[in-house]
Amino acid sequence: MKNVIRKAMTGCFMMALGFMVLNQLVVNKAQAAVVTPGVTEWKQSSTGTWPGMKDGQTYWYKLDNKAMLWWSTDGKTWEQVKDQDWADKSGKWLKISHKKLVWSADGKTWSEVPEWKWEGSDGKWYKFDSKWMLWVNE
User: Fold this and answer.
1) DSSP 88
2) What tens digit of pLDDT does each residue of 6-47 get?
3) How far does CA 90 lie from the centroid of its chain?
4) Beta 49-54 vs 125-128: how paired, if at all?
5) Which of 20, 42, 59, 102 is disulfide-compatible with 110, CB 3.0–4.6 A?
6) Is the pTM value of this prediction over 0.85?
7) How far apart are the C-alpha atoms of 100 and 106, rounded to whole Å?
């Protein structure tokens, strides 16, 4: 009888352990909203600019010292972006709101960007740090 109880308890323990491991895998997968394959080393951007596409044209973007967004078609003449947003490679809209980087698929519902990183239209990964310094992984 003791042997049967011991086997049942061991079985219950193993099932509980399995469910905990499975649950952790599901939670980790759900939190991994941004997958950056091959990203190993981040370097601070030497120009502080990143590319984006709008209506089939490449625009260059940068932030000023107040985290306001500017754009340029040639990298020389800059103009402040009226709506303060830009699109990533997948077409999501990004902007800085309430001191956080947020994104939206429809321009209406916004959520914080995981790790504040996105893929630029050039296929490179970009991210901001807490001081709005731009980092790139080439």
Assistant:
1) -
2) 665 665 455 554 545 434 544 344 334 455 555 579 999 999
3) 12
4) unpaired
5) 102
6) no
7) 18
